[in-house]
Design goal:
By secondary structure, the chain is an alpha/beta fold. It has 2 domains: about 140 residues, Rossmann fold, CATH 3.40.50; about 100 residues, 3-Layer(aba) Sandwich (Rossmann fold). Helices cover about 35% and strands about 20% of the residues. Strand 4, helix 2 and strand 5 form a beta-alpha-beta unit. The longest helix has 14 residues.
């Protein structure tokens, strides 16, 4: 079986717009017997919501087991002594924690950890309370450090921008769950049968995650956060978009 780790924002879609040729590319992968695992640092949505969005936009059916999110990797980092958790984020974090039976709190005085992800509802109070909890000794877990995420209107601030504000206010450096860090790699490897082809649009997350695992192949697409001509591109292959990545993958596999 071919294992494919596929990013979402900038690879499959931008916002609510599916990118050209993606539905057919995903069908071709499925027809070839590939196991596709969508792995995203975006912490705003639950795996179920992500699977529903991919299915709706592409017309190819997926379920939550086909998705790994950075909050799932972050939840796996928690110990009993880290509870309850003060969350700066949306349902993508809070529902994952609830389903795992992890206690949460809105009181920074009782928080034993602070978990931070992307949220468009951030306010000053949340930054202040999170920083207070961290100065009181709470553990700092960032779902990811992506500074931006791609949209049809251009890049918008990502979780990394929110994490940075809390880090500056508290003086505490976070532990990171998402790509390319080991909590996400370890989670992904529990869902795969062997080495994977990693398709993504960021060198510092997708490509770096692939490079840290023996036998994994990195394929950078230029449809999202990274553009042709940018310095520092480090990938096994660089192609225009997901359909071109699928052409490459199926061609390489066919020659083996």
């Amino acid at each position: 079986m071919i294992d494919v780790v596929c990013d979402l924002d900038g690879v499959v879609y931008l916002g609510d717009t599916v990118l050209d040729g993606v539905p057919d590319a995903l069908r071709r992968l499925r027809d070839a017997g590939a196991r596709i695992l969508f792995v995203t640092n975006n912490a705003a949505k639950t795996p179920g919501q992500v699977a529903e969005k991919v299915s709706r936009l592409t017309g190819v059916a997926y379920d939550p087991a086909d998705v790994c999110t950075s909050p799932e990797a972050a939840e796996g980092m928690l110990r009993d002594v880290d509870l309850p958790v003060y969350v700066v984020g949306d349902v993508g974090i809070t529902e994952v924690l609830s389903r795992a039976g992890r206690d949460q709190t809105r009181d920074p005085g009782e928080a034993r950890s602070v978990m931070v992800g992307l949220t468009t509802g951030l306010d000053y109070r949340q930054i202040a309370e999170a920083a207070t909890a961290l100065r009181n000794g709470a553990r700092f877990i960032a779902t990811n450090l992506d500074p931006t995420y791609p949209t049809t209107a251009g890049p918008l601030p990502g979780a990394g921008a929110i994490v940075a504000a809390i880090e500056v206010a508290s003086g505490v450096e976070p532990e990171v769950a998402g790509k390319p860090y080991s909590p996400m790699r370890d989670l992904v490897k529990t869902r795969l049968s062997g080495p994977a082809w990693v398709i993504g649009d960021r060198v510092d997350t997708d490509m770096a995650m692939a490079h840290d695992e023996p036998g994994w192949v990195s394929v950078l697409v230029l449809s999202g956060a990274t553009r042709n001509g940018q310095a520092g591109i480090d990938a096994d292959h660089v192609v225009a978009d997901l359909p071109a990545a699928v052409d490459l993958l199926l061609g390489e596999v066919g020659r083996r």
